[in-house]
Amino acid sequence: MRDDIFSTWSGLPVERVYEPSDGAPADFRDKLGHPGAYPFTRGIFPGAYRDKPWITRNLTGLTSPQASNERLKYLSARGQTGFALVPDMPTQLGIDGDHPMAQASVGAQGVPLSSLADMEALFDGLALDTATASFSIPGTAAAVTMAQYVLAAQRREVPKEKIRGSIQNDPIQARFCCYDAGTALDLALRLCIDTVEFSVRELPNWHPLTVNAYDLRESGINAIEEMGFALAIAFTYIDELLRRGLSVDDFAHRIPLICGVHIDIFEEAAKFRAARRIWARALKERYGARKDRTMALKLAAHTCGSSLTSQEPVNNIVRGAYEALAAILGGVQALDLSCYDEGLALPSEEAATVALKTQQILAAETGVTNTVDPLGGAYFFESLTDRIEQEILKLLHEVNARGGMVRIAESGWFASRLNQGSEQLQAAIDAGRKQVVGVNVFKTPGEYDKLVPIKSVHLQPCAEQAERVRRFKQERDRGPVSATLRALHDAAKGKSENLLPYILTATGAAATVGEIVGAMRVAYGQHYDPFEMIQCPWTFS
After folding, report:
1. Residue 87 near residue 138, CB atoms below 8 Å
2. Contacts of 174 (CB under 8 A, 6+ apart)
3. By the 8 A CB rule, do 38 and 284 touch?
4. N or C: which end of the chain has fewer CB within 10 A?
5. Strands 334-336 and 55-57, sheet pairing
6. Which CB contacts under 8 angstroms, 24+ apart, belong to 405-413?
7. Contacts with 70 (C-beta within 8 Å, 6 or more apart), sequence order
8. Rounded CA gap, 511 and 114, in Å?
């Protein structure tokens, strides 16, 4: 049974009642200030959602570019304001859809993006000059996906300043929470920094690096650890970019965080405020930022898939709504809401519609957008924000004491911390210390599960996509592919040039994601194929 100790999901104790001495800040300007002003605790825009609604998104990635395109059009017709895409496992691993390891997984958990042709099919008939596109791909292949999107937009004659969106491109996080094919971390870090440097020069409204706090949270850690590790990762990238010679005011505003939002409403909302305050002070005091936009941390959120249950899945509609409310109360800039059937299958159109309508109801009917930071000043909420800030700062200090994020990633300590958090959370649920309705408390007879029809995904489109990749490779002109891959390999081997121009050229010449990543892997002394199942079909110097 539940303990008599009242606490947040992260374990912070909660008192019976709070008074002015607990949460009313005497130093209002230093700790809170006004919305849109340093330290941005209360949000990064003066008018918040009164002036600029959050971007509504629904994470999409179905069996093929064509199927995903249909879903994007379906959601756009119903009011979705941004595109959120998740590539399939082979794409994230940096292999093509015709790879032997991809036979049963191409298109199974996301959209396959082996080539520029796939990217063009994905956005066929959709306006790229007014949309924002967010790609959930954090590893080595992220640079190739970005190149595909940029080229697809340019072929539509979209001006550079109108190419908007983001890519995760977070190699440190990707080593532990996503698909990892063992690509050298130094190559992955180089590509991460290259994409930011290239975007600063060429793509004024593109966000080339998004720290993926969401997958950190989904690994089982709590809200404090999620934000602490995410900020530590972000500061690591800032340090690398400064070593590259860039000015912090030129790039830091392009590093948003994509965070998870779990079910503890006040803790989740407070963590966003605490993170903004820590970021603002660090950018000003540690990095010498001078521009407000540099010190104003942009935050996107995705309601936590791990909070969804396969038991009584209709309950997930309620969970998603409250998690979305927490994100809005915390002042995020973009929001993806998990679909109620994701605990059992890929989202159906019906579930995706409910997720989108949930956001629209929150925006249009509930009144939560009428005022900025509506919980600001509440004794409990301010006390909780302060406590979360203190705990995050403690974790940042521990990371620094252990040598920084790269060091703890290589030492195994970070992986151990993630695993420990997952085990502790599951143990608390199993023991009933954390209550989950329909799982360990308030369970209803099995017929309640049947309220939600679950649609299965057939694997036939996966086989068709693999065949399309094989046909694409056979029909293209191999000469330009070979030449551009050789140039990319040589530039990667030299380890001094920015690789994005070479990746763009190779992508435009019809090279695939597996071939581009493979050429760079060879340059770094690794096998062309991360699974060592196919031999390199190209000759490099």
Report:
1. no
2. 138, 139, 168, 180, 188, 212
3. yes
4. C
5. parallel
6. 405/172, 405/229, 405/232, 405/233, 405/236, 406/172, 406/185, 406/189, 406/236, 409/172, 409/175, 409/176, 409/185, 410/185
7. none
8. 9
Strands (E), 343-453: none
Q: In the chain, where does the domain assigned CATH 3.20.20.240 lie?
A: 25-44+231-364+371-411, 63-209+460-541
**500-508 and 478-494 helices, crossing angle to 10°:** 170
Q: What is the DSSP string of 465-508?
A: HHHHHHHHHHHS-HHHHHHHHHHHHHHHHHT-S-SHHHHHHHHH
Would you mind telling me the total number of residues written for the chain in this entry? 541
Please give the order of strands across the beta sheet that includes 55-57.
Answer: 55-57, 334-336, 299-303, 257-261, 211-212
Q: Is the pLDDT of residue 455 over 70?
A: no
Q: Identify which of 279, 384, 369, 385 has the alpha carbon closest to the alpha carbon of residue 324.
A: 369
In this structure, CATH architecture of domain 63-209+460-541: Alpha-Beta Barrel (3.20)
Give the pLDDT of residue 73. Answer: 95
283 DSSP assignment: I
- Dmax over CA atoms of the chain, in Å, equals 73
The pLDDT-based confidence of 1 (bands split at 50, 70, 90) is very low
CB 534 within 8 A of CB 525: no
Over range 145-170, report the average pLDDT. 95
Q: Rounded to the nearest 10 degrees, how much is the dihedral formed by the CA atoms of 351, 354, 355, 361?
A: 180
Predicted structure pTM score: 0.93
Cβ-based neighbours of 532, under 8 Å, separated by 6 or more: none
Tens digits of per-residue pLDDT, 283-330? Answer: 999 999 999 999 999 999 999 988 998 888 889 999 999 999 999 999
Query: CB-based contacts of 418: which residues, under 8 Å, 6+ apart?
Result: 176, 177, 216, 219, 220, 221
pLDDT (tens digit, 9 = 90+) per residue, 237-295? 999 999 999 999 999 999 999 999 999 999 999 999 999 999 999 999 999 999 999 99
CB neighbourhood size of 407 (10 A): 14
At the second CATH level, the architecture of 25-44+231-364+371-411 is Alpha-Beta Barrel (3.20)
Write out pLDDT tens, residues 92-113. 999 999 999 888 788 888 999 9
**pLDDT more than 70, % of the chain:** 95
Q: Which two tokens stand for residue 342?
A: 């994701």
How far from 282 is each of 39, 43, 271, 393, 520, CA to CA, in Å?
10, 17, 16, 11, 35
For 129, the token pair is: 């000059």
Residue 165 DSSP SS3 = strand
Contact at 8 Å (CB) between 514 and 94?
yes
Whether the per-residue pLDDT at 444 is higher than 90: the answer is no
Tokens in use for 169? 């491109």
